[in-house]
C-alpha cells in the first residue's frame, strides 16, 4: 500500500501515506512496528532500518485496539479475508491470515482481527492486505483457502499477484 524497502533499497513506485504505520527490520535484526512519526524520526539516521513495508491500518498499539478502528464504521463492519502481522512485548512474531469470501467463512472485520491479536498477546499489530491477496505459505505450500477473484488478474480460489511480501527464513 505504501513505501517499501528491501536490504536498504527503496522501491521507487509507491503511494505516499503520511499516517500509515511501518513493519520494520533493523540492521541489528530487531523487528518492530512503528507509527509513521516514530519511523520518520529513526529513518533519518543512516543504516538503522534495513527492510520495511508501510501498510494500514494500525490494529493494536500498547496492547490495545487502535482507537481509530473503533471510530471507523468500515473497520467495525466490513468482513473480508485479511493478512496481518503483530509482535508481542518480548519480540515474538504473530502472523494471522483470516480466510473469507467462501462458503465456510465470511472473513473478519479489522476490529475483530485487532481483538484476536490482543487475545494472542500482541503489543503491536498491523493489517497488511486483504481480500484476494491474503495467503500464507509454509515450505512452499499454501496453507489457507484463497479467495482470489475481484481482480482482472485472478480467478476465484487462485493466488492474486502482489507487489510485496513478508518472508521469513531460517537462521543461517
- Which structural category fits the helices and strands? alpha+beta
- Give the averaged pLDDT, no decimals: 82
Sheet with the most strands: spatial strand order? 2-1-5-3-4
Sheet having the most strands? 5 strands, antiparallel
Shape: globular
Q: Tell me the series of helices and strands, N- to C-terminal.
A: EEEEHEEEHHEEHEEEEE
Whole-number tally of structural domains: 2
Please give the share of residues in helix: 10-25%
- Kindly provide the radius of gyration, computed on alpha-carbon positions and rounded to a whole number of angstroms: 16 Å
Strand content: 25-35%
Poorly predicted segments: none
Number of helices: 4
Number of DSSP E strands: 14
Amino acid at each position: 500500500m505504501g513505501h517499501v524497502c528491501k536490504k536498504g533499497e527503496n522501491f521507487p513506485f509507491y503511494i505516499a501515506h503520511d499516517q500509515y504505520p511501518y513493519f520494520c527490520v533493523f540492521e541489528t535484526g530487531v523487528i518492530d512496528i512503528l507509527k509513521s512519526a516514530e519511523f520518520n524520526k529513526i529513518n533519518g539516521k543512516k543504516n538503522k532500518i534495513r527492510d520495511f513495508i508501510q501498510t494500514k491500518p494500525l490494529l493494536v498499539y500498547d496492547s490495545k485496539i487502535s482507537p481509530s478502528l473503533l471510530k471507523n464504521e468500515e473497520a467495525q463492519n466490513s468482513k473480508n479475508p485479511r493478512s496481518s502481522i503483530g509482535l508481542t512485548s518480548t519480540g515474538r512474531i504473530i502472523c494471522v491470515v483470516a480466510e473469507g469470501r467462501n462458503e465456510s467463512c465470511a472473513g473478519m472485520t479489522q476490529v475483530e482481527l485487532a481483538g484476536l491479536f490482543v487475545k494472542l498477546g500482541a503489543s503491536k499489530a498491523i493489517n497488511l492486505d486483504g481480500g484476494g491477496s491474503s495467503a500464507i505459505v509454509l515450505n512452499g505450500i499454501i496453507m489457507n483457502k484463497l479467495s482470489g477473484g475481484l481482480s482482472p488478474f485472478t480467478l476465484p480460489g487462485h493466488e492474486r499477484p502482489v507487489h510485496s511480501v513478508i518472508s521469513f527464513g531460517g537462521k543461517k
